[in-house]
Design a protein that fits this description.
heterodimer, A: 119 residues, mainly beta, four-stranded antiparallel sheet, 11 strands, B: 108 residues, seven-stranded mixed sheet
Chain lengths: 119, 108
């Protein structure tokens, strides 16, 4: 069974750094890209970017370029989303997702990681 | 950047009603358009990919159509479990994705 399991909820202060994770199992981790999606409280879905774990080719949506870093460690089947200096506006639920075979859409999703940034 | 609009932003309908949501892209995206359902507190779920293809396991009352800039998502007979927010999503050849703003569907 394909699973994406995300790290737990985080509470951070503005200016702190953070790295959250998404561990894939039940499939060949390098065969599918992993994408990240932000959902701010009470708001819609925003696509942040994707990474191909096989070669770490990374593509950011323009709104998130330079704001976050997406990375992956294929040896442990884990993708990451990180911030170097959090802002209150980074408070959101973050989801990871991957496509299905032959489908350019997110068919499998993680459970989400809630990040709260507050002083 | 390609911008996506959806209408309506919300709707109320009765059980058994036909529900239609439209999604418009700011430029031609061929059939590079997906539809997701998100229930409160849950991760999104893919319903339709490439404009009109029903994802495996999704009930046949859900359907999608369109190409170019104008797309339609339909629930042929609204069920209580369909209460959710629905999002369209476009993608391009570089695998840059953009979601629409969403349509909240509830029962009248």
């Amino acid at each position: 069974e394909v699973q994406l399991v995300q790290s737990g909820a985080e509470v951070k202060k503005p200016g702190e750094s953070l790295k959250i994770s998404c561990k894939g199992s039940g499939y060949s981790f390098t065969s599918y890209w992993i994408g990240w999606v932000r959902q701010m409280p009470g708001k819609g879905l925003e696509w942040m970017g994707i990474i191909y774990p096989g070669d770490s080719d990374t593509r950011y949506s323009p709104s998130f370029q330079g704001q976050v870093t997406i990375s992956a460690d294929k040896s442990i089947s884990t993708a990451y989303l990180q911030w170097s200096s959090l802002k209150a506006s980074d408070t959101a639920m973050y989801y990871c997702a991957r496509p299905g075979p032959g489908v350019v859409a997110a068919t499998h999703w993680g459970q989400g990681t809630l990040v709260t940034v507050s002083s | 950047d390609i911008q996506m609009t959806q209408s309506p932003s919300s709707l109320s309908a009765s059980v058994g009603d036909r529900v239609t949501i439209t999604c418009q892209a700011s430029q031609d995206i061929s059939n590079y358009l997906n539809w997701y359902q998100q229930k409160p507190g849950k991760a999104p779920k893919l319903l339709i990919y490439d404009a009109s293809n029903l994802e495996t396991g999704v009930p046949s009352r859900f359907s999608g159509s369109g190409s170019g800039t104008d797309f339609t998502f339909t629930i042929s007979s609204l069920q209580p479990e369909d209460i959710a927010t629905y999002y369209c999503q476009q993608y391009d050849n570089l695998l840059l994705f953009t979601f629409g703003p969403g349509t909240k569907v509830d029962i009248k």
